[in-house]
Amino acid sequence: MGAPLIGARIPRKEDYRFLTGAGQYTDDVTLPRQTYAAFVRSPHAHAKIKSVNTAKAKGAPGVLGVYTGEEIAAAKLGGLPCGWLITDVNGQPMKEPPYPVIAQGKVRHVGERVAVVVAETQEQARDAAELVQVDYEVLQAVADGRLARAKGAPQLHDIAPDNTCYVWALGDKAAVDAAFAKAAHVTKLDFVNNRLIPNAIEPRAANGSYSRADDSYTLYVSSQNPHVERLLMTAFVMGLPEHKVRVVAPDVGGGFGSKIYLYGEDVVVTWASKQLGRPVKWTADRSESYVSDAHGRDHHTIAELAMDKDGKFLAMRVKTTANVGAYLSTFASCIPTILYATLLAGQYTTPVIHAEVTAVFTNTAPVDAYRGAGRPEATYVVERLVETAAREMKMDPAEIRRKNFIRSFPYQTPVALLYDTGNYDATMDAAQKLADVAGYAARKKASEAKGKLRGLGYAAYIEACGIAPSAVAGSLGARAGLYEAGEVRVHPTGTVTVFTGSHSHGQGHETTFAQVVADRLGLPVENVDIVHGDTSKILFGMGTYGSRSIAVGGTAIVKALDKIIAKGKKIAAHLLEASESDIEYANGEFKVAGTDKKKMFGEVAFAAYVPHNYPHDKLEPGLNENAFYDPSNFTFPAGTYVCEVEVDPETGVVKIERWSAVDDFGKIINPMIVEGQVHGGLAQGIGQAMTEGAKYDSHGQLVTGSFMDYCIPRADDLPSFQVDTRETPCTHNPLGVKGCGEAGAIGAPAALINAITDALGVKDIPMPATPQTVWRALQQKKAA
Amino acid sequence: MEQALDTTLTVNGQSVTRRIPARMNLVDFLREELGLTGSHVGCEHGVCGACTVRVNGEIVRGCLMLAVQADGCAVETIEGLSDSGELAKLQKAFHEKNALQCGFCTPGMLLAARDLLKRNPKPDREQIRAHISGNYCRCTGYQAIVDAIEEVVAHG
Fold this sequence. Notes:
The structure holds two protein chains of two kinds. Chain A folds into three domains: 18-139 and 202-253 and 259-292, Aldehyde Oxidoreductase, domain 3 (Alpha-Beta Complex); 299-468 and 633-783, Aldehyde Oxidoreductase, domain 4, CATH 3.30.365; 483-629, Aldehyde Oxidoreductase, domain 4, CATH 3.30.365. Helices cover 28% and strands 23% of the residues of chain A. Chain A has 19 helices and 28 strands. Chain A has a seven-stranded mixed beta sheet with strand order 3-5-1-12-9-10-11, sandwiched between helices. A five-stranded mixed beta sheet of chain A has the order 7-15-14-13-8, sandwiched between helices. In chain A, helix 9 (375-392) packs across helix 10, helix 9 runs parallel beside helix 18 and helix 17 packs across helix 18 (743-760). Chain B has two domains: 4-81, Beta-grasp domain (Ubiquitin-like (UB roll)), CATH 3.10.20.30; 87-155, DNA polymerase, domain 1. In chain B, 37% of the residues lie in helices and 17% in strands. Chain B is built from six helices and five strands. Chain B has helices spanning 26-33, 78-83, 88-96, 106-119, 125-132, 143-155; strands at 4-11, 14-21, 52-55, 58-61, 74-76. Chain B has a five-stranded mixed beta sheet with strand order 2-1-5-3-4. In chain B, strand 1 and strand 2 form a beta hairpin. The N and C termini of chain B lie far apart (53 Å). The chains are: A alpha+beta, B alpha+beta. Chains A and B meet through helix 1 and helix 17 of A and helix 2, helix 3, helix 4, helix 5 and helix 6 of B.
């Protein structure tokens, strides 16, 4: 065979269709006799629905059906479930208010679904939606998580007094308090991790259809995990037999977390398709995306780090209020707890840590996982504290990190995780070199000579990917398994189709996974195709989120490949009249060890399907294997980012002069794809720190409800990144892989804010650090 | 009742005559009436650039132009510009430099890149960034897109 496939920069197999406009996204799917849905959404953040009058809408041209919460309740459609039960500090289950697919009696955020109109055309549906008359009794609203538990705050749900979903804690509080009492220095920060709106460029879309022929449904949907969508929809909401529903997530135009969840629109179009006997399609416009996609982040945190006189970390204490929005989205409850507090050790040996998280309901869109999901928030806490501590202790920020790095693995953190491997010095050293930290002083001087301010900031992040194992997750409240499934189907002529429960919506699985398969089987990559995103083709799947696909989904495929090779050896032994134990497989050939007797992979495949000469007494014909893989631990990618900025004090404009990122993702299958993931993650992390921030006013109106008001980074907002990797292979999966999808978004905000605060000489600055925010900070400093 | 106008335009070199509702956007017409789904709808307010198409040689936002305004115009889309080979070098460079991930912005991005190279065959990285800054990409961080366009500039 040719050059090794693992580690090869192979251009993507999936590109052709996207480059030529031949991709098939959900809105591109047109079904015969298709109809169109338009949702009536609440203009109020908090209101009682006194009445909904649909008469005019029902009489409008082309209208086929109008449904309100009343019809949904009569149809006995359940509410949207939450997939993770958090147990609070008192041992009580979190408060789980009903999350109706269409509002029942009350609306709790702007954009909540109040009714749906289905018509012959999209225009008719939208026109008629405007004729639905809703009589609201407007109530006081609360949008800011910090105010949700205040005395007299408007109450969202009867079952959740003080708007509190849970108060949850992790760590040894007494030990932490004792360590703080002895500390030589304590660094304290009080900040907001800003609310973000994911903004995949493809808006959410769903197209449901019902077949009378076999009483079955098909739902095309822009989703990151079609099997989970089907499971939740059938078992928890619609009460349908799971095998009668097919969910297809075709090409998906970006997800970033926002398409993990089961949304009410998906349920409604599926249900309505049976009522009308015709397919029902809905595609969000961007305004709907802003108010109805699950948002991310939105923490208020008070964090403290205790040190001895030499800068050795003694303890960390963190108190966070997490705004989960009006309802619990699918994984909302585990993000600010299981995926947040457990990461607070970072790369450091901090011996004791205590975190308390209060999740509150507010009159805002639900908040759930967004690229990084809990881990960016944790990294921001740790890395802002550490950098600030270094400044207060007058230590070099890299040195204080090195003084506290974990260097012995496996390492049990005080916040539940067991790091299997890592080398934080290696990524720090490489990042400093890449960033030319040695030349920084001269560059700073040059900036000063121009009247500019220059700053340098680090972030040494860690993340936990591939949430696992299922049993542990279950004991922590997960209501789903966290394995992945894969199937390898070898065709009679020896080409291969692989079915994966992971879903690719930009990550390049069709190439990366094909490289893994082709490498293991010794076949050309062209002979391997990867299929994903269709419950009727793929045996099962948990989908793609949490940078889990290669570590969990890739490993499932490897396990199935092992079975293929094992069976192939049996067939080859028969064909070669040799003992099975003497057969070796390499480079696409089954060989009798030490001889030149061999059978090609294709010959063995052919024998399996045309079994004229075949060990029928021992083996079934065919060559098709599947595997489920449940990891024994998380994986722990880590790295160091160094950001250097130049600030114009006259305008507050921050220019990123250099960005150096060195990541340890374990083994890398396709470096080109990995670099792309890092770039994209960094862009979103920089977006959080500099341009993006969802703002609700005190009435609960989203004032950043379009691309004109919510600024995602453009090409000329971003620098060119210098990226590199170091490698400590994961110890508990056969590929040695860790995952790379979220790293950039996790590490970037802290590095950038550390750089900006360094340039400005201020302790803190809120995100997003827009020019106005930066300019104001400078004026305040001047005044002080 | 809704007004519609008889409209004749050329789409990817073929003459098309349809009675088109006055309110219909050009991109919706291309997608819904002609099945040319390579032009995507990302924001419907002219910001994201996913719906970029070419009208009489100039790139426009398909969501900000009414289809009836294209009466008598020559409209070109990703499908036509792929078939004609006009985008071939850019498509090859995008592929080799990994300048796309989910692919949703890609057709619009290719049209914007081609527009730049027609105006300025030797742009530098900053000029490339400025010209494509009207097209959002949420996946790549733009760097690989800039690399790909630069590759075409360097090697033609």
